[in-house]
Automatic annotation (TrEMBL):
InterPro entries: BCAA_transport, Leu-bd, Leu_Ile_Val-bd, Peripla_BP_I
Similarity-based family: Belongs to the leucine-binding protein family.
PANTHER family in the cross-refs: LEUCINE-SPECIFIC-BINDING PROTEIN, PERIPLASMIC BINDING PROTEIN OF ABC TRANSPORTER FOR NATURAL AMINO ACIDS
Keyword Membrane: no
Record domain Leucine-binding protein: where: 32-369
Gene3D superfamilies to which the protein is assigned, alphabetical: 3.40.50.2300
Keywords: Amino-acid transport, Receptor, Signal, Transport
A Pfam family reported for this protein in Swiss-Prot or TrEMBL: Peripla_BP_6
Protein name listed in UniProt: Extracellular ligand-binding receptor
Entry keyword annotation includes Ligase: no
GO biological process: amino acid transport
Length: 382
C-alpha cells in the first residue's frame, strides 16, 4: 500500500508540473481561437465521432461566416481517439502541448472522457464533454463541463417510460458487465421501474466484445417480460436485437442515447424499439428546424443527437466568450456557470456539478417509406 501511495504521489506531482507548464497556453493565436476536439472517428463507435465533429464544424462555419467571436475566427483541431481511453490521453496531450489548445471538446464516450478529465482539471484546461453521460465525469473539478444529461436521469427516463407509457409490469435487462455506461443505466432503470410498481424478472449480463447472447436471451424469454431494456451502444444492440427477435421475443425493447445511429446498422428487428435521446430531429422547434436543414444541406443526411450536442458545445463556448470578453479557461468556466440560453438540445443551465439541467426525449423506431426512422414519442422533464 505504501508503494502504491508513493507512486500515486509521484504521478500527481508530474501531472501538476505538466499543468504549470501549459496552463498559460492561450487558445488565441493572432486572429484565431483554437478549439481542440477529441472524437472516435474510427472504430466501433465512429458514428458518434463523425457526427459530433460535423455538428461542431457546422457551428464554426456559421459563426465564422457571421464575423467570428469578438472579431476572431474559430478553428477546430481534431484528433481521433478510436474510442480508446489510452489514445484519448495521447491525443489530449498532443492538443495541449503541441497545438496549444486550452479548450477541448470531447471525448464522446464516458470511458474516454474519464481518462482525460483529471488531466484537464490539473492543467486548468476547459473540457466540455458533448455526450459523456457517466455521473462521475464532472467530479474531476470545475474545469469539466458536459452538454448532455447524466446516466441516472437517462436510466430513470427509461424506467418511467416503460412503466407509465408502455404500461409494462415485468421487465428484463441485458447489460455489459464491463461498461460503466451500461451498468449505470441498468441500475437506474431498475430502481425507477420498481418504484413505479414494476418487477424486474431477469437481469442478465455479458462482457464487452461478446457476439453471442443466446444463452442470456433464453433465460430472458423464459422470464416472459413485457419489456426488455438494452443499455448499450448501437453496434452491440443491433446484434442483441437480431438474436432476441430470432428467439421469438416480441416485447418492446428500450434503450438510451447509445442507440443513436442504430437505424443504419440494423434491420426490422429494432422495430417496436424506443430510446432516450437529447433531441428529436423531427421537432417543430425553430432552432431544431434550422439546424437540421443546415446540416442536411452541408452533409446530405439527418443529424443524430451527437451532431446536435457538438453544435451546442460550440455555441455554449461562443456565448461564454462573448459574455466574459475572454478566452481564458479560468474566466470561461465562470461564464459558463451563468449560461441560461436556448439551444438545439433544449434550454440549458448548469447545476453546481456543471451538469446541464434539461429535458430528454423518447424516440420510437418506425418504418417510413420502407426505411427505418426514429420519430419523436414523448418528452420527460428532469
Amino acid at each position: 500500500m505504501k508503494n502504491v501511495a508513493k507512486t500515486a504521489l509521484i504521478v500527481l506531482l508530474v501531472v501538476l508540473s505538466f499543468g504549470m507548464i501549459f496552463t498559460g497556453c492561450a487558445k488565441e493565436s493572432g486572429n484565431t481561437i483554437k478549439i481542440g476536439g477529441i472524437f472516435p472517428l474510427s472504430g466501433a463507435v465512429a458514428v458518434y465521432g463523425v457526427e459530433c465533429r460535423n455538428g461542431i464544424m457546422l457551428a464554426i462555419d456559421e459563426i465564422n461566416a457571421a464575423g467570428g467571436v469578438n472579431g476572431k475566427m474559430l478553428e477546430l483541431i481534431s484528433e481521433d481517439d478510436e474510442g480508446s481511453p489510452e489514445k484519448s490521453v495521447n491525443v489530449y496531450k498532443k492538443l495541449v502541448t503541441k497545438d496549444k489548445c486550452s479548450v477541448i471538446i470531447g471525448s464522446l464516450t464516458s470511458g474516454c472522457t474519464a481518462a482525460i478529465s483529471s488531466l484537464a482539471q490539473a492543467q486548468k484546461v476547459l473540457l466540455l464533454a458533448p455526450a459523456a453521460t457517466m455521473e462521475s465525469i464532472t467530479d474531476a473539478g470545475d474545469y469539466v463541463f458536459r452538454a448532455c444529461f447524466i446516466d441516472p436521469f437517462q436510466g430513470t427516463v427509461g424506467g418511467k417510460f416503460s412503466a407509465e407509457t408502455l404500461q409494462a409490469k415485468r421487465a428484463a435487462v441485458l447489460y455489459d458487465i464491463g461498461n460503466d455506461y451500461s451498468i449505470g443505466l441498468y441500475e437506474n432503470f431498475k430502481k425507477t421501474f420498481e418504484l413505479s410498481g414494476g418487477t424486474l424478472v431477469a437481469a442478465e449480463s455479458y462482457s464487452t466484445g461478446d457476439k453471442d447472447f443466446n444463452a442470456q436471451l433464453t433465460k430472458i424469454k423464459n422470464a416472459n417480460p413485457d419489456v426488455v431494456y438494452l443499455p448499450d451502444y448501437y453496434g452491440t444492440v443491433a446484434l442483441i436485437a437480431k438474436q432476441l427477435r430470432a428467439q421469438g421475443i416480441t416485447a418492446p425493447i428500450v434503450g438510451a442515447d447509445g442507440w443513436d445511429g442504430i437505424i443504419d446498422n440494423a434491420g426490422d428487428e429494432v422495430l417496436n424499439g424506443f430510446y432516450s435521446n437529447h433531441y428529436a430531429a423531427d421537432s417543430t422547434d425553430p432552432r431544431v428546424i434550422a439546424f437540421v436543414s443546415s446540416y442536411q444541406k452541408k452533409y446530405g443526411s439527418t443529424p443524430v443527437s451527437f451532431a446536435a450536442l457538438g453544435y451546442d458545445c460550440v455555441y455554449l463556448l461562443k456565448d461564454a466568450i462573448v459574455a466574459s470578453g475572454s478566452t481564458e479557461p479560468t474566466v470561461l468556466k465562470d461564464a459558463l456557470m451563468q449560461i441560461n440560453n436556448a439551444y438545439v438540445t433544449g434550454n440549458l443551465t448548469f447545476d453546481a456539478k456543471r451538469n446541464p439541467i434539461k429535458s430528454a426525449v423518447m424516440m420510437e423506431i418506425v418504418k417510413k417509406d420502407g426505411k427505418l426512422t426514429p420519430v419523436y414519442n414523448a418528452t420527460v422533464n428532469p
